[in-house]
Amino acid sequence: MADIRNVAMVLYQAISGAAVDEKLVQEATEYFANTESPVDPDTFRRLFAHIRTHLSDQQELTSLAKRWQARLAGRQQFHDVEEANAFHKEYVAALDMDKLITESVTAGFAKRNAGTAFDYELSQPTKVTGWTLLYTTGGSAVLRAGLREHRVTANQALLFSPNAVYRLKREAKSPSWSHFYAVFQPLPTWRPHLDWPKVAPHVGGFTIDSAHQDKLQALFQSLLDCFSDALPLRHELAYNLMEQLVLRCAGLMYEIPRPHVDERIAKVQAYIDEHYREAFSLADIAQTFHLSPSRLSALFKEETGMTVFGWRDEKRMIRAAQLLRGTDQRIAQISEAIGISDPAYFTRLFHRLVGTTPRDYRNGRAEALGTN
Fold this sequence. Notes:
The protein has about 375 residues and is an alpha+beta fold. The protein is about 50% helix and about 15% strand. The protein has a 6-stranded antiparallel β-sheet with strand order 1-8-3-6-10-9, with helices on one face. A 4-stranded antiparallel β-sheet has the order 2-7-4-5, with no helix packed on it. Helix 1 packs across helix 5 (about 80-95). The chain is globular and about 75 Å long. It starts with a helix and ends in a 9-residue tail after the last helix. Mean pLDDT is about 85; it is low at about 365-370.
C-alpha cells in the first residue's frame, strides 16, 4: 500500500514549483488505484499533469504551497501520517474544479468515508455550465438547495441543472457515502429528458427501482472505463454512453406519477417567480388570486411546504447566487437587482439561507461552505 506521506509530498512538489520525483508520482498513482477516491489512476495522472502545467490558474493551491513551505521549513518529507493527511485535506479543498472540468463529459466514482480527505461538501461549480448526474450506491447524504433539505439514500439519482444552488455532503450518521457522478453538456435532443421530478429548485431526483439498478451502474462503469481507454474514439463513446444514461433515467422517470399541484397555487408560484424583485404583501397576492390571506397562506404551505415569502426569498437567493458567480456586479448592485434595498440585510439573509456570505460565495472559499 502506498504511503500517504509520499503521496502528500508529490502533491506538494507539484504545486510548489519543486522538481517532481517520478517514483513518488507512481506511488501516488498506486494510492489512487487502491483507495476509494473520486478519481481513477489514469484520471489522476491526467489531472496531475494538467495542474502542473496550469498552476497559475490554481491560486488557492499556490497559496497553500506557500503556507506549507513555511510549515515544512525545508523538510523533504512529512513528519507523520497525521500531518500528511492534514495537507491532503487542504489540497483537496483548495482545488478549483472549474479549471479541471474541461471536457464535454467528465465522470467518476467516489466513496466518501468519514474523516478522510474525500469527505468534503459538494457544491455547484461556479463557472461550469454543464449538468450533473449523481447516483448514490451506498450510504446517505444531505442535500441543501434553496431553503429545502433533502435526504439522499442508496439508489437515488439526482440531476442538477446549471442554475442549481446547492450543498451536498455525507449524512453525519452514515459512516460513508458512495456515488457515481457525471458532468456533461447535453445535446439539444436530450433537453426534453432533463425535466425530472423536482426535489429542490433546479434539482430533479427519484429512486431507481431494483430491476434497473445494475443496468445503471454498469453504464456508469462503462463510462468510467472510457477515460482509461486509449481508443481514438473514446470521447465519442463517452458521449454515447452519457446519452444512454440520460435516456435510461428518462424512461424510468416517465413511469413515476407527478404529484398534483393545486392550479391556484401554481399560478401564485408563477406570479412570484415573475415579480420576486418587487415589494408585495400577502394581501396583495391574495387579492390578485381571489383568496383570503389566511386561505392563501394555509394552502400555499400545504402544497409547497413553504410560506409565500419563503418561496420569494428562495427565488431571490438563487438569482443572487447566479449573479455572484456569473458577473462582476458589486454586492450592493446584486442586492438591488433582486429587490432588496439594504445590502446588509441581503448579506444576512444570504448567509442564513445559503450558508456563507455573498463575498465568500463569490470567492469560492471552501471554509465558508461548511454544513450548518
